[in-house]
Every structure is written in structure tokens, then in C-alpha cells.
Amino acid sequence: METDLISHKNVFGGNGSNSSALKIISLWFFGILSAGLFSWFLNQSLKSGDWNFALYGALSGIFFLIVFLFQVFFTKENKKAAFVIFLESMAIISFIADILMYFLFFFAFLFLCLYFGYSAGRKIIDNNLKISFWNVSKAVLPKGVLAISLAISITIPSFLNGSKQDFPLPFSIFENIVKSGEIIIQNFFPGVSPSMTFEEAARKAAEAKINELPEARFLSAREKQVIVNQAALGFYKQFSDYFGMSINEKSTISKWIYDIIKEKFLNLSGQSKNFVFLLIGALIFIFIETLSLPIRLVISFFAFILYEIMLALGFVKVQLEDKSKEVLIV
Asked: How far apart are CA 249 and CA 174, in angstroms?
């Protein structure tokens, strides 16, 4: 669907009035504010292990990208756009600078990602009389999502590497990560939850296997119970032999997995540990970029709805320039 975009001689991208300048400056302010909130929530989610902070950080990052997309439409001058992007990049690293290694290099890369996104969007706007909203978003958002995904994928392993603890990943954070993937776990192991004790999970898995046997209907409840107990003991031994460590039957599955990872990590050399942190960052980056398409679609959808609301409320208007090019004014 095509929409009409801005191409004004005024430096603010508006109609030259004080109200237009105020609206554009307000847009810049919300961009810097949302970037700073994203940084703060990311910092707090790592230091506290509270999953709610991570959720608020993700929402702040999405809101920042929506505002950034509108900045491309409404900010015409490259110098002003570069200055605002500079401030937004500073805001993104403001609360994570003490965590990052080589944060100046990261800041420069972050700034370039956002600026190239802005330039790509403005190029489409300036070279066309009537431009699709979606074409501009497709040019801008990949760079924006790249900047946010880099901030996350670099900050997390940097935080883990800089931790003074022997094992830098707190159990609270690990437990939240495992819980978030419970739906996936259920697909492979129906009825098994990471919050279960190992005993409960082993018995549940044994019962499921026994009930699949045709002979199970002829067994009494007591006989089934004996077989389940034996099968559970078999599971304990099998897992214990495979991972080379004893199993606490009363420990939850998530705690048991955490202990295994912790023991393996502590046995690594210093160089191998650095490689693990690098691998964690790469996996986080790949995971976010894998989801970048649906993320961009969600951002574009909400940005377009907001754009239509602004048109309906008169926040922006459509008018023709002397060269018969349709534009928006604020």
C-alpha cells in the first residue's frame, strides 16, 4: 500500500511553523529516551536476573525502532539526522558502557548501522514522488534491528566474561531462559517441565513408555508401579553414566542441567572460556537475526497504524509542492 511522504525545504521537515519544529524535536526526544530505556532495562535484566526487565527492554527497543522509522520520514537534513543518531547511539550504550569491551568501537559501528539505515530510507523518499511506506521500512528497519541485535549479543557475553564469579551465569537467569523454552521442550517431551524434579520427570517418562505397550492393560496398578520404579532407576543410571556425574533425584531438571553446564565450564581453560563467551554472543545474534523478519513486520505494522492515526488526527497533513510532488506536513 502506498502512502505519501515528506520532502520539504524546511530543515525540520515540516511547514516551517514553530509547532512543526516542536513536533519534530519531540520525535527526536522520544527516540533518545526510548534508546536510553532500552539500555537501562538491558543493564538491569543482566544484573538482577529479572526476566521482566528483559521484556521491558525488548518493548523499549521496538518502540525506539518505530520512532527511528518516523525520524527518517520527518528529518530531511543529513547533519541534523546525524546529530540525533549520535545522541541515540550514546543513549543505547549509556547504561552498558561499563559492561562492554571496546565500547568505542561498538559505538562507532552502532552509529554507522543507524545512519546507513536513515540514508537508505531518505534515498527512497527523495528520489520518488510517491513512495510505499513498506519500501521505506524495508530499507530502514534491517539496519535498525541489526543495531539492536548487536547491542544485545555483545553486551550479554561481555557481562558474563566480566563477572567476578567462577561461573558467570546466575541460576535465576538460566532458569528464566529454560522456562521461556518450555513450549519447545513440551514438543519433544510431552508432559515434562523444567520445573519438575528429576524423579517426577523420570517417572512420568517411564509411565508414558509403559502405557504404550499393549500388555500394559493387563497389569495391575501395583505391577505398573514396580515397573515404573525400575524404569526410573534405569533412567537415573543412563543419564549418570552419560554425563559422568551423580543425579540428585529431588533436584529440578533446570537445576540439574545448570549444574552440568557449570561443572563443564569450570573445567575449561581460560582460552576455551573466552571461546564459549564468543559462541554465546554469536548464537544470540543469529537467533535475533533469524527472527528479524517477523520483528520488522510487527514494527512496520504498528508504525503504519500510528502513521494513519496521525493523519486522521491532523498531526501530519498531505499537500502538493510546486513541482507537483505529494508531501506530508506537520
From this structure: 20
